[in-house]
Design brief:
The complex is a heterodimer of chains A (about 500) and B (about 160). The longest helix of chain A has 19 residues. In chain A, the strands form four sheets. Chain A has a 17-stranded mixed beta sheet that branches. In chain A, strands 20, 22, 23, 25, 27, 29, 30 and 32 form an eight-stranded antiparallel beta sheet that branches. Chain A has a five-stranded antiparallel beta sheet with strand order 21-24-31-26-28, with no helix packed on it. Chain A has three helices and 32 strands. In chain B, about 75% of the residues lie in helices and about 0% in strands. Chain B is globular. Chain B starts with a helix and ends in a 6-residue tail after the last helix. In chain B, about 55% of the residues are buried. Classes of the chains: A mainly beta (about 500), B mainly alpha (about 160). Chains A and B meet through helix 1, helix 2, helix 3, strand 17 and strand 19 of A and helix 1, helix 2, helix 3, helix 4 and helix 5 of B.
Chain lengths: ~500, ~160
């Protein structure tokens, strides 16, 4: 079987693997809504060998049959795509530099190595590997190195002696802002990128590459494309940084492959973002489907639209639903423990209900020993900065002066970016939100605060992806809480009546 | 109990697709595939409550599905353990009809393979296991599983000769 044929079949299988399970399955698993009574007669065991022994006999016979079966007809190569109206212009030719003796070593192959594969990771369902942000921020760590000037691939037709050969460009640099280099030289829009050449963007640089078939690659700042190839399909080596791709559907037998130091993403036609950090590669798929394969052992996952996967030494690829960037926790979502909090109807609250605490007991043992709090469970990403805003108001009573207005948030698997300057919370594992009574003009109204004081804001970062839990503790009373907003976009304190972004 | 529910939700998010793909590859009828997948997660929930997290949750889930499929085949005492094809599955609203039909044809081709070959494809290409993990689950040496996979691709190349990705 030819490699092209194998690739074609694996693409078909990859597409079939991406079928989303039915909603009814999720309901049956998580909510016990059985369509029929499931059989749960005995604990799972590996099946016996009898059924398989018979099947193996059939396989042996099939093998013999196949050995004498003529090879399947070879598929004719796909016809070249006709240039459609409005299609991008053909890539220009770029002059090739003279061949260089210092040829870059071949990139690692995408197929899993024949060496022994490490055992299945341990049972933790949530990988501890850091998960980069899905939006294309500049990658963490030191800036990625520029690719050294790479000579065009001399695998094309042999040049005529004495003339400067012209090599057809793989793509053109459609846009270039800030510092952008192609093959180690400053680049300008419209310039072609030849096979084997790389593209580098500096700290303020951005670039857009356009292929002849309309495939578009957007490079965020500090991104290094080590080289571009177009032999059997397109192949791009992403050494570091963030790459957003809008891939035109590829002809049969051809794929668009992005190779990073950790993983390979094989694409048929889709939109996705790939963030390559020193220790991991993250794939976010917006449209279509991409298979992400970890290079070290071949473990792979088919990632469909709206999902993401991370490949790193500590985390095998798995397609996970992408949590929303903006997380709003409303009172009715909270699970109440103890007697300090209660859910009360409140027409002034954004959801018609609020969490109220009027019976606050001094937490002599600290928050972690308190048995009275509200727990919120939700999905969020790891290693992403969520700015925390709390909307609440102080209740003025005869017994409680207006200054008693503090609550605290305690994430169970995350930390704030700094310790709160208050004796009631220590360290970065909890933060005080205080000040609902500080502004006389707003007293008695709901408004947003971002920390211990009106002008403060604080960010929260979870240590693992997936399901998160945070606790809301009363530190003073009486106070009502309308909403908690974990935002990746709202940098400034929202206006009192501002609605959270969705 | 709450922790088990949360853990189950996480495991479903993480492995639901692989378990579904594996079950779909081993049975023609979508409703039976759903039964097998649901039973696997229910068995895992029971395991979580009684004994804690298994060392390899995905392997555990796939083993349950595999066990159910084999049990069913034995009970029916049919030589070819695959079930008769059921009614055409409904196409998903977010997929084009052509793509959904192509997926069904691909899965059908996998199911037409001899069981050991189909399993090699289902474990490696559909559930995303490495050859090593798939071999461990299937109870065969890695080299055997790799050769089965190669053989399966060879057969699929014939069965799917007209399909284009």
């Amino acid at each position: 079987m030819t490699p092209e044929e194998r690739r074609r079949l694996e693409e078909l299988l990859s597409d079939a693997a991406g079928e989303t399970p039915p909603v009814s399955l999720r309901e049956r698993v998580l909510f016990g809504r059985a369509r029929g009574r499931p059989r749960t007669r005995r604990p799972p065991t590996f099946p016996g060998k009898l059924a398989w022994a018979a099947a193996l006999g059939a396989v042996a016979a099939m093998v013999l049959l196949m050995m004498v079966r003529p090879a399947p007809p070879r598929r004719s190569p796909p016809p070249a795509a006709a240039a459609a109206e409005g299609a991008p212009p053909p890539a220009p030719e770029v002059p090739a530099a003279p061949p260089s003796a210092s040829r870059r070593p071949d990139p690692p192959t995408a197929s899993p190595p024949a060496a022994p594969v490490p055992s299945i990771p341990a049972a933790d369902p949530v990988p501890e590997a850091p998960t980069p942000s899905p939006t294309p921020p500049p990658p963490a760590g030191p800036p990625t190195p520029r690719p050294p000037p790479v000579e065009p691939d001399p695998t094309g037709p042999a040049p005529v002696k004495g003339t400067r050969p012209a090599v057809r460009a793989v793509a053109i640099l459609r846009e270039a802002e800030g510092s952008v280099e192609v093959a180690g030289e400053p680049a300008r829009p419209g310039q072609g990128v030849a096979p084997g050449q790389g593209v580098w963007t500096g700290p303020a640089g951005r670039a857009v590459l356009l292929f002849e078939d309309g495939t578009r690659l957007s490079l965020a700042p500090e991104t290094t494309l080590r080289r571009l190839e177009e032999t059997r399909g397109k192949r791009v080596e992403l050494e570091g940084g963030t790459l957003a791709a809008d891939v035109t559907r590829q002809p049969a037998g051809s794929t668009f492959v992005v190779l990073t130091p950790h993983a390979e993403a094989a694409v048929v036609g889709t939109r996705f973002t790939l963030v390559c950090r020193p220790d991991s590669t993250r794939l976010d798929v917006e449209e279509g489907q991409v298979r992400l394969r970890r290079l070290s052992d071949g473990a792979s996952a088919a990632v469909s639209a709206g999902r993401y996967a991370v490949a790193s030494p500590a985390s095998r690829p798995a397609a996970l639903p992408r949590p929303p960037a903006e997380i709003v926790l409303l009172p009715a979502q909270g699970s109440l423990s103890g007697a300090e909090w209660r859910l009360v109807p409140d027409p002034a609250a954004s959801s018609g209900a609020a969490l109220e605490t009027t019976r606050f007991d001094e937490k002599t043992g600290g928050m972690k020993t308190s048995r009275s709090f509200v727990t919120f469970a939700f999905h969020a990403e790891a290693d992403r900065d969520y700015r925390v805003w709390v909307r609440g108001k102080v209740l003025e009573t005869r017994d409680a002066p207006a200054g008693h207005d503090a609550v605290a948030i305690l994430p169970l698997s995350g930390r704030f970016d700094r310790p709160c300057a208050d004796r009631k919370t220590q360290g970065t594992d909890a933060y005080l939100f205080n000040g609902f009574g500080d502004d006389p003009a707003l007293r008695g109204r709901y408004f947003w605060i971002g920390g211990n004081g009106l002008g403060e804001s604080v960010t929260l970062r979870f240590s693992r992806p997936g399901l998160q839990r945070v606790q809301l503790h009363a530190m003073e009373s009486p106070v009502r809480i309308d909403a908690i907003w974990l935002s990746t976009a709202q940098a400034d304190r929202p206006e009192p009546d501002a609605k959270p972004l969705r | 109990m709450e922790n088990v529910t949360e853990a189950l939700a996480e495991l479903y998010d993480r492995h639901g697709g692989a378990v579904w793909a594996y079950a779909r590859a081993l049975t023609y009828r979508r409703d039976r595939a759903e039964d097998f997948a649901a039973e696997a997660f229910l068995a895992l929930a029971r395991r979580l409550r009684e004994e804690g997290m298994p060392p390899d949750p995905l392997g555990y889930l796939l083993a349950v599905v595999r066990s159910r499929v084999v049990d069913e085949a034995r009970r029916r005492k049919i030589e070819d353990r695959w079930e008769p094809r059921g009614p055409a599955p409904p196409t998903r609203p977010d997929l084009s009809v052509a793509r959904a039909e192509r997926r069904e044809r691909v899965l059908e081709a996998v199911r037409r393979l001899p069981p050991p070959l189909a399993e090699a494809v289902a474990l490696h290409a559909l559930a995303g296991l490495t050859f090593e993990e798939a071999a461990r689950l299937a109870g065969v040496p890695r080299a055997t599983l790799e050769s089965r996979y190669a053989l399966a691709l060879d057969r699929l190349s014939f069965l799917l000769k007209d399909e284009k990705p």
